[in-house]
Amino acid sequence: MDWSDTPEQTAFRAEVRSLIQERLPERYRCGSAEARWQGDRASENPELRDAAMSWTHALAEKGWVAPHWPKEYGGAGMTPMEQFLFNQEMAEANAPLAASIHGVAMLGPTLIVHGTDEQRREHLSKILSGEVVWCQGYSEPSAGSDLASLQTRAVRDGDEYVVNGQKIWTSGAQTADWVFALVRTDPEAPKHRGISFLMIDIESPGLSVRPIINMAWGDDLNETFFEDVRVPARNLVGEENRGWYVGMTLLDFERSGISNAVGSKRNMADLIAAATGEERGRARLDEPSVRSEIADRFIETEVSYQFSLRIVSMQNSGLIPNHEASSGKLFNSELTQRIARTGTKVWGLYGNLWDGSDARAPMRANFTHSYLNSLPSTIAGGSSEIQRNIIATRGLGLPRG
Length: 401
Fold this sequence. Notes:
By secondary structure, this protein is an alpha+beta fold. It contains twelve helices and eight strands. A hairpin with a 2-residue loop joins strand 2 (153-157) and strand 3 (160-168). The model has no long low-confidence stretch (mean pLDDT 92).
């Protein structure tokens, strides 16, 4: 395998790097830039709003807000390899994508395939401009991995649907403007049928969002309640009772996981630099087991990177990764947890300090926070159990049972 870029790929990388160097606001050059962008775009502070919008406009000028969308809809029409290179450079710089990932990766492609001309005109441009941020209303308290068991009801009443029910784990709902949701419109139909796909303004009367505070005191996850929420029938995407098939639609969205792989490599590089540099006095590098763990994690980040290369190589050859994508997701999500655990072990008891402003907290308590935040990584995006089942049945050909 040749890991070298072609001349065209080298030129494209240089173009992406140049935009990042010249246009990325200073605010987004370190830390959790993605989360800050989503909050900044609706901030009451004009400087924060300007930072978010200036970066959005910089990407939009090149169609890079939605790299995989066709050009006729405002995207860049990138090939999987171009998406890979773009996402890699963005991840290396820790630059935010400047759009709702649910809007760009899920709703936008769904509207392009199943939406009406009116729906595409109304919503696609607002996703690209950052004017509207979307969240996903799929999971329910009794319908997570078995999503087709969802019970949130939508009853047609003239030109509207009346929605009642509850969604849970609604990521980003606290800063979102709209939610797209799967709702049950025919309770008598088999569970994969009788489901419809609705777009709902999050400010609709009867819709309430309540944060779920996690163990790291984060509030990105939410419960979303629908109490007689009226939704215009024109917000139905695709056919009534065919929403399951509409909701599963995606365009050729690059699934290599390169952003996660690059993030893991960056975390290990930062840990090694701190432990061997200015914070060496707190690090337990004299213990062979700690040094061994650091070496293992470093090797594993390279393995994760190779998983990403394998997947994008398949996509670029016109193949559709299946169990290969599950292998990459499984490996990297569990690697995220191992890196967090190793990071706290390196610092010993100092790793218990939570306050990043405490002068004694190594690396501003980054690994202390990531230790807690990494726990859901083996659940989000498809649990490790589901990924192992996919690998077993589709990859290894093992029987179900």
